[in-house]
Specification:
This protein has no helices and eight strands. Strand 5 and strand 6 form a beta hairpin. It is globular and about 35 Å long. By secondary structure, it is mainly β.
């Protein structure tokens, strides 16, 4: 969760039928109203969320519970529209090295 430019941005997990979906939601702090809501992940959830320069960047699990591959997703902070997605090809939870914080067991 982060607050910037009069808005609160947060990740939320919901259950749809028999599966889970993760969303990013933006609220206007002055009115309390929801500005936008965007689905960004299935199965494993949001790993990180940052709002900088009019962009909301999330590290999200777009894989199944078995493969858990992560993706960087960039949303427009004003509209929630997806601007870019980059498949990392790795599972951050299981990855060794720099992306996982440089801590090799």
């Amino acid at each position: 969760m982060t607050v910037t430019d009069g808005r609160l941005y947060a990740g939320a997990e919901i259950r749809e039928r028999k599966s889970y979906r993760d969303r990013v939601v933006a609220f206007d702090l002055a009115s309390g109203s929801q500005v936008w809501l965007e689905n960004v992940a299935v199965a494993g959830g949001l790993r990180a969320l940052d709002v900088t320069g009019g962009r909301v960047t999330v590290l999200a699990d777009r894989g199944s519970r078995q493969d858990s591959l992560d993706e960087l997703v960039v949303l427009d902070a004003a509209t929630g529209e997806e601007k870019e997605s980059i498949d990392t090809g790795i599972d951050v939870d299981r990855h060794k090295g720099e992306l996982a914080g440089g801590l090799d067991p």
